[in-house]
Amino acid sequence: MNRHRRVIPLLSAIVAAALLTTTYASPAQQQPTLKVGALHVGSINDNGYNQAMHDGLMEMQANVPGIEIIEAENVPESADAERVMENMIQQGAKLVYPQSFGYLDPALNVAKRHPEVTFEHPAGYKLAPNLGTFWSATTEWEYLAGIVAGKTTQSNRLGWVIGFPIPNILTAISAFHIGARSVNPNVTTQVIVVNTWVDAAKEAEAVNALADNGVDVVTSIVDSPAPVIQTAERRGIMSIGFHCLCAQSAAGENWLTGIGFTWGPLFTKMAKDVIAGTWQSENVVGSLASGSATFAPYGPRVTEETKQLVEARKADMIAGTLQVFQGPLYDNTGTLRVPEGQALSTDDLLTNADWVVDGVSGQFN
Amino acid sequence: MNHILLAQVERVAANVPFAVGLAAGAIRSATAVLYAALGEVIVERAGIVNLGLEGCMLTGACVGFVAAYRTGNPFLGLAAAALAGGLFNLLLGYLVVTRKANQLASGLTLLFFSFGLTALIGYDYVGKKIDGLSLIEIPVLSQIPWIGPVLFVGDLMSFAVLPIALLVWWVLWRTRWGLSVRTVGESRTAAYAAGLNPALIQYQALFVGGLLGGMAGAHLSLAYARVWIEQMTAGRGFIVVALVIFATWHPLRAIVGALLFGGAVAFQLQMQARNAQVSPFLLDMLPYLLTLLVLLVWGRRRQYQAPEGLWEVFRGTS
Description:
The complex is a heterodimer. Chain A is an alpha/beta fold. Chain A contains eleven helices and 16 strands. In chain A, helix 2 (49-63) links the parallel strand 2 and strand 3 (67-72). In chain A, helix 2 crosses helix 9 (264-276), helix 5 (139-152) crosses helix 6 (167-183) and helix 7 runs parallel beside helix 8. Chain B has helices at residues 2-12, 18-45, 53-71, 74-98, 103-121, 147-151, 156-174, 176-186, 188-193, 198-224, 236-246, 251-273, 280-283, 286-298, 308-315, and strands at residues 136-137, 153-154. Chain B has one domain (17-315): Orthogonal Bundle (ABC transporter involved in vitamin B12 uptake, BtuC).
């Protein structure tokens, strides 16, 4: 019994030490101006969501002198997250990034206990005096990706592989299709739901099934876009990436482009605000104009004309003269969703959409 | 350059008949499962249930991918995957044959061990690009309408799997070693009395089964998805354990089982790609429903019963 009492704290200490694996010291050896802690739900080299977050932190470190970053990977979305945050704060972290949706409540608990520490949570829906939230709307980028797909397709059949039919993904598909049909009225979009985020072989087979049925451009929202991109290459059909600009590393000549988060500028601003004492708790949603997402470099199949068209539409959206969900819009059962002369805000769709636009096929329930 | 690329797209974007898409997809999805099932048939015939098979496949997928990436040669990757799978099963052998630990608990423990181990080994290789096993179109034969695209387009591993299934059958039923394996699986005591070394034979069966399990994983990471992602076997190891019962511990019936499983996966994706008005979640249950159905229909027939030695495992006496 006595022995066990000593073993358990020892084990906890080892686990905690193992979780706080990587510390990126600043190049200069002086006292850091700011210690930043970050919790990741997966690995920081996943070519996807987590890597995009990590890359943003690295850019912040490069831009603000004297920043030290403590990162913990594969942290469960549970009370463990609270313990990891407490540990980071004990090490002196003054800005903490709980980088996954499920860390919101643990972060709010820790934030209450440590009013002197600043927290920034992605996609959260609750604020605290020392906890702000941020996200980047990619809907407009999906519209632009749809333009690229619509201009490049030979078969006029576009395909999507998605994990689950949740509102923000359905909104992305609709925006993509609206973009595609704005340049190619004959285009149709077929969606396959694979019912998992991480089954690479099933995602590959889904791409094969789409290719068998005449689809020649595929994109996806699953954990890693690599299986879809790789299979598209193998079938000789074109692909568009998502999450991380680095997805392009899995592609070859059939790559069109990809949407990736670019958190660097936003994270840099947050760090500077915290250092200057001007940080305020708010919900920041990056838009097309603010640039917290962008396109990866185009592949060889995308023509100059298409690239210019994308730039022109992008300028229109930033200027406010072009809206993605501009009426009249019907859903794929024929119900009028947006009347003529009106436009729908994407904020509402991202959390509530249970429909896709006319021209998209797929079984979602 | 652009002209050639466009020609290629027109070729692949041609609509494939449903039956062809389904059959080709079934074979693609069945290949990895069949390799693992053949290995598990050998292991279970020797009286061991390997619930850690998922971990064996995952280790093969991970090590195979890493080796292929490091060497640039997918065949070296395949060899490394087979070896890693074999070693993984020897670890199980040490626990259950030498240390006489409970088979079910040992298998499951090794499975969870493999989750961590492969995440660690594969850490730097997630999302990396490799030149996997290439797609082979056999000249002339692949041009035969309907049959060509199904049987004569594939990768080396999918072409090799049927001969290997026949080989496993031949080894188990036509060689002295196969007889020894089956004897040990029926009764270690009888095998011992006949002058065999049951522990050695179980180790051998585990190693051969592990080679096949590792190759199954390699098919996923080197030929099919051609990426390494944590836990990418996604439960196929457990499907295989069920398939071996479904196949009543017979390598040739395992072919039917694997094709039914692969067919169910391909069917639901082809149905979705054609926008059939059926719920994808309902279709997702098909592979498991089929397995259950066969277990119900065949389960009680005496001629299909398990090797006697396995009953000890389920009674908890081994």
